[in-house]
Design a protein that fits this description.
The protein is α/β, with parallel strands linked by helices and 396 residues long. The protein has one domain. The chain is 37% helix and 10% strand. The strands form 4 sheets. The protein has a 5-stranded mixed β-sheet with strand order 3-10-9-4-7, covered by helices on one side. The longest helix is centred in the N-terminal third of the chain and has 23 residues. The protein is globular and about 55 Å long.
């Protein structure tokens, strides 16, 4: 599953990714090559200069740049041991969990008609009510947590933090009325570090994601994504189709805000993954509905291998992650963010204010680079001597 969420209100001539549920570049996510040659040369800069310029995507763990650093003998021994013992067990157990949950979804949707968005070809089982939906959601949350445990995330620290409210006067908060405290957010907003983010959010709230349309056709995963209520986007879609999807997402956010039984949306407004120390500019698609949002910050402390999916290939990342005996995840949950009237009128202001809050509370550095720069960095690391000109066009 990938998570590369583009600004759903902007034109789509620039194409990216995130995990299969709209993630970023990756072997299991995007079947499109990371870079297609054109005529624009990659700047010839030293590794130090590149790391300074593209700091948000730099790996700083023991495995080095792109996971190809020279490892000490002890680390090589641990890797070899894990490859022949831990990895096979995790793969078998992980696949068993996936198949088991697929069967649950198949059985409990067997005689159900999926919800369809006729204009956009969207199809999901997330709007299915009753006890069947309850079984699908509760089993999904439980098995997602089990999957995280299998991957080495034995303990997940969760912190509920009330930020400093100096930026918002008490008078302003009082003016919004006490009724807001009981309002449901329309979307969960999270920073994007790894495909593991999706598993965590599934175990926590089982939300709907934005995914590539091809995800819905993947064996096993396709049905599960429909039970999640994923909104599918076509990377190569026309502008009119893309705007239509933006409308679907906006409507789904409003629906979740107004109807407690509706599936809540989960969006990664950065549009790509980072190393976890930086927060990229937010796309405004998640903020067009003018509904409250629930900010969640994810951090992956590490000693040897960083679970962050930044400048490392998908296959290499999965193998190293499976070889890691123990992985760590820390979660910071912030209070629901209620937009002011000014923020409702200006989605970009709304997005920037939420981003600033998350950066401050998560102790992250705000960066002004994005997916285009990430591809440039990857190309430079791979020694590519050319880049597609589209990489030099910025998203709004």
């Amino acid at each position: 599953m990938e998570s590369e969420l583009k600004d759903l209100n902007s034109k789509p001539p620039h194409k990216p990714k995130s995990s299969e549920l709209v993630h970023e570049e990756g072997s299991t996510k995007d079947d499109r090559p990371l870079l297609k040659p054109d005529s624009i040369p990659v700047p010839s800069e030293s590794i130090e200069e590149l790391e300074k310029k593209f700091a948000a995507y730099v790996r700083r763990d023991a495995y080095g740049t792109m996971g190809r650093g020279e490892l000490p003998v002890k680390e090589k021994v641990l890797l070899g041991l894990a490859l022949v013992t831990l990895v096979p067990i995790r793969v078998v157990v992980g696949m068993s969990i996936l198949i088991f949950y697929y069967l649950i979804c198949r059985i409990f949707t067997l005689f159900s008609t999926p919800n369809r968005e006729d204009d956009q070809g969207q199809e999901d089982y997330a709007h299915m009510g009753g006890w069947k939906r309850t079984v699908i959601v509760q089993c999904g949350r439980f098995l997602s947590r089990v999957m995280l445990f299998v991957l080495g995330f034995h303990w997940i620290g969760e912190t509920y933090r009330i930020p400093d409210t100096e930026s918002k006067s008490s008078a302003e908060n009082e003016g919004r009325g006490q009724s807001e405290e009981s309002e449901r957010p329309g979307a969960i907003i999270s920073n994007h570090v790894s495909y593991i983010d999706i598993l965590y959010h599934m175990s926590s709230s089982f939300p709907s994601f934005v995914a590539k349309r091809s995800v819905g056709k993947i064996p096993l995963v396709g049905l599960i994504s429909k039970c999640l209520g994923c909104v599918y986007v076509q990377r190569e879609s026309k502008a009119s189709d893309f705007k239509g999807v933006a409308g679907v997402v906006t409507e789904r956010i409003r629906e979740a805000h107004q109807n407690k039984s509706a599936p809540i949306m989960m969006l990664f407004p950065e549009g790509t993954t980072t190393n976890g120390d930086y927060l990229l500019p937010f796309k405004t698609g998640a903020f067009l509905a003018k509904a409250p949002v629930f900010p969640v910050i994810l951090r992956y402390p590490y000693q040897r291998f960083s679970p962050a999916w930044d400048s490392i290939t998908g296959v290499r990342h999965v193998i190293f992650l499976l070889c890691q005996f123990v992985n760590h995840l820390e979660v910071i949950r912030l209070p629901i963010y209620y937009p002011s009237q000014q923020e409702k009128d200006d989605p970009k202001l709304f997005a920037n204010n939420v981003r600033t809050l998350m950066a401050r509370e998560g102790n992250m550095v705000m960066s002004d680079i994005g997916l285009a720069e990430k591809r440039i960095y990857h190309a430079a690391l791979n020694g590519n001597n050319s880049l597609p000109s589209v990489l030099h066009q910025k998203d709004d």
